[in-house]
Amino acid sequence: MLSSVYLLPRFYQAMAAVIFLYLLSYSFPMLFIVASGLLVLLLMLTIYDAVSLRSRADHVMGSRTVIEKLSLGDEQEILYELENQSGHAIHYQLVDELPMQFQHREQIAQGLLNTEETQQAIHKIRPLERGVFRFGKLLLYSSSKSPGLIQFRSTIAEPVAVAVYPSILQMRKYELQVFSQTATLSGVRQIRSIGENDEFESLKPYMQGDNFRSINWKATARKNELVVNQFQNTRSQTVYCIVDKGRSMKMPFDGLTLLDYAINSTLVLSNIILRKYDKAGLITFSDRIGTVLQAESKQGQLEKIAEHLYQQRTDYLDANYELLFYHMRRLIRRRSILLFFTNFEQPVDLERNLPYLISLSKRHLLIVVLFVNTALEASSEMECEKKSDIYLKVFSQVAMVEKREIAQKLLRNGIQTILTTPKNLSINVINKYLEVKSKRMK
């Protein structure tokens, strides 16, 4: 119990006063008796305060509410709740032993908790790593309003482990944007189909603007009103997300690596693919082939993709595109849509791997996703105050030009390319997929 008791400044102030009286007693002996009496009184009050606080702490209930699966890179809330079931008000400080990844050791909340009162506090977190985050004990430091000499520490919630998964929040947000009527307000483009869709979906009453060639004359005769056939885009297309885990994907932006952005975007896109009744698959690689998840549209496929993405880690080696090409040539027989998340920083990196990308694009509809270095973008527009600033600005501008040339070279070789900032990755990838579906590109 003693290890859970802490003396407060009020105790030290009272003890300082007693010591001062003892010092004065050398000149005024009568003060010795007064100082001794006050010392005994202080000790008795301290013992009483400790015992009463110990009993009150048992009647203060608390909880920590954190969602079962945290989302990578998203701001989320932890809810804390305190309820005082004792007959006395207490001053409190609430401290949570947050996971070491947050590097946060400050108190969550403090204040006065009256009898039979319930208070809540919210702490916001933003996980920047995938994996298991271990929350320690939730500690309550309580003290009385009077005499308020000591502080008692008690544990009101036990340790808990929570997994951080690829962003489930982003997945749900973009799902709502894609399938809502107001999607264009959020950055998702609803792209007009070119030509006619080719799979019958249902019958519907004719409306102004419908194609006359879609009128179903038999149904029109039965219902005595114009009825048209409604078609939809081709379903059951095979779509693979290919994620490069090489060292170039270790580059950090806003706390997350490029691999983390690619993983979040892959989960978001896989959900859209499955909602569009296409087959979603996953391939990861670096110097060797990592995860290979066959494209399927059956129930539980999204959960499988999320579990595989959760386990991915960046390898500090160059990605082997040759190995990927020969593995995919053997694995994927049917022409598919390939969303390839990678990063080329130098033209020589592309030159070395371009033959394999061209070979893939001949067999499949290949879409290569490249990242804009936003740090270089900021440096290229900086005001120069010294010579080193000029060197940095010129280097940044050259690097940005090289990245645009890389994207242009891919396009010249017939490879669809997305050059995007990490922040806008998911939006741009979704729009590209919707464009491919709308134009029936194969």
Give short descriptive properties of this protein.
442 residues, alpha/beta, Immunoglobulin-like, Rossmann fold, 3 domains, six-stranded mixed sheet, 21 strands, 37% helix, 28% strand
Secondary structure blueprint with pairings:
Layout: E1 5-7, H1 9-24, H2 30-57, E2 60-65, E3 69-71, E4 76-84, E5 90-96, E6 109-113, E7 118-125, E8 131-135, E9 138-144, E10 150-157, E11 160-165, H3 168-178, E12 199-205, H4 217-223, E13 227-232, E14 238-244, E15 252-253, E16 256-257, H5 258-275, E17 279-285, E18 289-296, H6 301-310, H7 321-331, E19 337-341, H8 347-363, E20 365-371, H9 374-379, H10 387-412, E21 416-420, H11 425-439
Parallel strand pairs: 3-11, 14-17, 14-19, 19-20, 20-21
Antiparallel strand pairs: 1-10, 2-4, 4-7, 5-6, 5-9, 8-11, 9-10, 12-13, 15-16, 17-18
Helix pairs in contact: 1-2, 3-5, 5-6, 5-11, 7-8
